[in-house]
Design brief:
Chain lengths: 405, 405
């Protein structure tokens, strides 16, 4: 056989098409909420597939599924491949799913070629990554990584008041596995953004996840009649909104390609056509891969506060730097396979963020059409799926220590 | 007796205090919606007061009350004094009410001093000026002036679906009076704005009502993820909002003291903290006393429209110039009585706007505390009420042709 070891594109695509029928919503959408009946169906199928590939399957209290095939060295912890099979209520067919099914494909390729890595290979389906049914998102991986206690996860409820622990048990995935050592964790995911497509690249070598800080801003004025109050006698918060927006976007544009600022919510109060607003409430979302740079951005934002403007930080998520050796395995595999690629920082959260706190971690991005995700229009080509799975395969083997060619 | 003829301040204030008890809401507020039981109580009292001063009282189909005392010349139409006794749901004690009760005070002063103008004097209570219960505002005066047909008014319904005609009849004010000639119409009103107070003036000589134009604006972008989309690849409508606000306020500040611009509603869509908005909807209210200047302001606003910005005018109200002779009667009375005064253009609509289309019309403003109106905190002093009523008295006599001193 010529060329490097490769997964089977058609087989991977068939598995993606099978998944796309379970919880199908509309022509191309999926609604497969965490721990729903649809989630149970895809989980049962995934377990059966993994078992047919020689895996032992265990679950933990959060319903995370660990499907492990032994390696040649019984003393080594597994190299894990994971992502999630749940979706947004109006989600697409690839977000999360590609990462889990590519794990099956990697395992099946190794089996077909009789390649036996030193480390066990473990495929993981993390519970409730999306956070659409139970809040917060990335709940299962958070329990595994010790970010959340099992009790905390158990007590989460959905909108109907159904508890997380009861729903895990209801669909048959309440297990007694406890957190175990992981040699390395690799997650293949669609980019969910437009960068790779815009630059015509095939692979994103994800070096980490950016930091996020959320702020509530209120601009304060005095309500008055739009017809009877001369401009000079108004305390109108609207012109101040323009100044604030300018400053927020200056912050977001201060480090092109890395810094981000977003004003997602803007509401004038009381919201009457012929009344000068008494207040304007807005939100600011600041992101940067580097926490020190994010500190600077936050300081610049907070310096805009004054007697007519309050700014309060309501949430922060620190940036994550992935493991250098694991990232190197991804980058060298992309290179070896001849894919155009770039280092990229993930803008969105992933299970890998939590796993990175307990194991060497890296991620692989493939482009998705127009960067669209969390949407039935989410789209990738079979070739893009294949490319990502091949980089995953070779990164695992590279990390395993060069046991395969 | 020394000094010019004067109304009785205490008597006027007692009438205002009596009114403040009918529909009292909180310590200083009034809730006396048009055609409510409270409106009936104040109307019954007003009619009784007018009749005791020798007036004949009639109603029209819209429930407008016309209380007329004959003049010395039976061929002359009446000089009318009017405003409204209804209030906002959370209104104050003077808006509208001062103008009607000052009419009673003018009549009582003339009676007490045995002064008989040539013209009949007619005090008018217009129905549903506020528009809080039945839309549109200034409905009764609009019917009198032929702006609205009686059928149109009759068919208006409140939030509970009760018809205007049924409610007029229910409180006993459905009459058969038809529109009649009016020699001149004078309306005393609180300013509802801060100008007179800010300039330390006692009287506003209202020369007209400014024009108003309302616009709906939509800034169009593309929704995308706040974390995964670099600034340079976004189509974000928020920076465009800042530019639009700057331009709108430049228009509003273009003719200081006359031009006005207000952005009362601003809403980012879909309104999610970590999503770049796909659209921002806002309203613009432009006002100017001169229609040509308002045309220019509108042109400047419309020139901001483009592929990412739609601007649609949804309503306009042309400026009104009050009658020069009637305005002169107000101005010369303020001067004769020694009040500090200035010409002023009303920023808000009043019944006088409608009446001006069928009779020579003028208005008198007195300051109100901090310009606050449509609010329980609405406040004037007994002296301010007295000043306004005295200017009203002398303006009526001046217009009548100098039959009194």
């Amino acid at each position: 056989m010529t060329g490097p070891l490769s997964i089977d594109r058609d087989r991977l695509w068939r598995r993606l098409e099978h998944s796309a029928r379970i919880g199908k919503a509309g022509e191309t959408g999926l609604c497969r909420l965490a721990l729903s009946d649809e989630d149970r169906v895809i989980r049962d199928w995934f377990v059966e597939q993994a078992q047919s590939l020689g895996c032992q399957v265990r679950y933990d209290s959060a319903g995370n599924i660990f499907a492990r095939r032994p390696g040649t060295d019984p003393d080594l912890p597994p190299i894990a491949i994971g992502s999630h099979l749940d979706t947004q209520p109006s989600g697409g067919r690839y977000d999360g799913i590609l990462g889990v099914l590519a794990g099956l494909e990697v395992l099946q390729t190794l089996t077909a070629r009789a390649i036996s890595p030193r480390h066990p290979i473990e495929i993981i389906d993390w519970t409730n990554e999306e956070g659409s049914r139970f809040s917060p998102a990335m709940l299962g991986s958070g329990v595994f990584a010790g970010i959340f206690t099992p009790d905390y996860a158990d007590s989460r409820t959905d909108k109907q008041g159904r508890r997380f622990d009861a729903e895990v048990a209801r669909i048959g995935y309440r297990g007694d596995a406890t957190p175990h050592p992981v040699a390395a964790y690799f997650e293949l995911h669609i980019e969910q953004g437009p960068v790779l497509e815009a630059e015509g690249l095939e692979i994103g070598v994800v070096t980490g996840v950016q930091g996020i800080r959320w702020f509530d801003v209120e601009l304060i004025g005095d309500c008055c009649h739009a017809g009877t109050t001369p401009m000079a006698l108004r305390r109108d918060p609207v012109p101040a909104l323009a100044r604030l927006i300018d400053a927020v976007y200056e912050i977001g544009n201060s480090d092109p390609g890395r810094s981000l600022s977003t004003v997602g919510i803007i509401e004038a109060q009381p919201g009457s056509r012929n009344t000068v607003p008494g207040a304007i409430r807005l939100t600011v979302d600041l992101r940067h891969p580097d926490d020190t740079a994010l500190d600077d951005m936050e300081q610049r934002l907070l310096s805009l506060a004054g007697s007519d403007c309050t700014i309060a930080r309501i949430w922060r998520s620190a940036p994550v730097q992935f493991d250098q050796r694991a990232v190197r395995s991804v980058r060298s595999s992309a290179k070896k396979l001849g894919f155009s690629h770039r280092d990229i920082v993930s803008g969105a959260g992933h299970d890998a963020v939590h796993v990175a706190s307990v194991a060497p971690t890296a991620m692989i991005f493939v482009p998705c059409e127009n960067g669209i995700s969390h949407n039935p229009r989410e789209s990738i080509t079979p070739e893009q799926a294949e490319n990502g799975a091949n980089v995953l395969l070779h990164a695992v083997l590279d990390y395993d220590g060069g046991t395969a060619r």
